Amino acid sequence: MAECLFCRIVRGELPAQIVHETDAVIAFRDLHPQAPTHVLVIPRRHIATLNDLTADDAPLMGEIALAAQEVARLEGIAERGYRTIMNCNLAGGQTVYHIHLHVLGGRQMTWPPG
């Protein structure tokens, strides 16, 4: 997806403050943070929404979750607690159509999220 914002970050065409990366995923700071720590974890491979996942993507989703865990450790929020969020499609709040997991922390989270 040549025009996908996150694909352009993966290819190094757009700058990002990278926090963590592996062969399969990359994690970088959100440009519009909603908490003191707000990092996005994305697969390097373009997948538009959660609805586009297949059973073959299960290992990749596990890598995304493990990367979120590592981001929380690196950012010093693992022990106190953090929130992870994945939005799907417009009504779910998705604004960039490349799946991504938000890792938020550094403040008390409330429920319901809104």
Kindly describe this structure.
A 5-stranded antiparallel β-sheet has the order 1-2-3-5-4, with helices on one face. A hairpin with a 3-residue loop joins strand 1 (18-21) and strand 2. With 114 residues, it is α+β, with helices and mostly antiparallel strands. It is globular. The longest helix has 18 residues, at 58-75. The chain contains 2 helices and 5 strands.
Order of helices and strands: HEEEHEE
CATH class: Alpha Beta
Find the CATH topology: HIT family, subunit A
Radius of gyration, whole Å: 14 Å
Number of continuous helical runs: 2
Structural class determined from secondary elements: alpha+beta
What is the CATH-assigned architecture? 2-Layer Sandwich
The best one-word shape is: globular
How many strands appear in the DSSP assignment?
5
- How many angstroms does the end-to-end distance come to? 31 Å
| Average pLDDT | 96
Oligomer: single chain
CATH homologous superfamily heading: HIT-like
Going across the major beta sheet, what is the strand order? Answer: 1-2-3-5-4
Beta-strand percent range: 15-25%
Biggest β-sheet strands, sense, barrel: 5 strands, antiparallel
In helices, the fraction of residues equals: 10-25%
Short descriptors:
114 residues, alpha+beta, HIT family, subunit A, five-stranded antiparallel sheet, 2 helices, 5 strands, 22% strand
Secondary structure topology:
Blueprint: H1 5-10, E1 18-21, E2 25-29, E3 37-43, H2 58-75, E4 82-85, E5 101-105
Antiparallel strand pairs: 1-2, 2-3, 3-5, 4-5
